[in-house]
Amino acid sequence: MQQAKFSIEEAQAKFIGNFKSYGFKDKSALIRTAIDHFKNKLELENLRKSAELYSEIYFENDNLKELTETAITGWPE
Fold it and tell me: Which helix (H) or strand (E) holds 15?
């Protein structure tokens, strides 16, 4: 595993110092989990924005609606 050196605020250091009370085996496990959580949150937000854009494009484009309707014709309900 790679190591990194970075600076944090005192309150953040105190929070990280309580890693055991949060159920982590060490400070690194807490930080890795926090990074993964933040990464997932960003990816979900990007996915949401993309879905909104596709939805906007779909509802503004009559040809796309017609194409979609044609594609689903005959599919089971």
Answer: helix 10-17
Listed in sequence order, the residues at least 6 apart from 17 whose beta carbon sits closer than 8 Å to its beta carbon are 27
Query: For 29-48, how does the pLDDT look when each residue is reduced to its tens digit (9 = 90+)?
Result: 999 999 999 999 999 999 99
Q: Is residue 64 part of a domain?
A: yes
pLDDT in tens, 61-70: 988 888 888 8
65 within a domain of the structure (yes/no)? yes
25-33, Cβ contacts within 8 angstroms, sequence gap of 24 or more: 28/1
Domain for residue 4, yes or no?
no
For 61, the domain range is: 45-71
The predicted model scores a pTM of 0.73
Structural domain includes residue 38: no
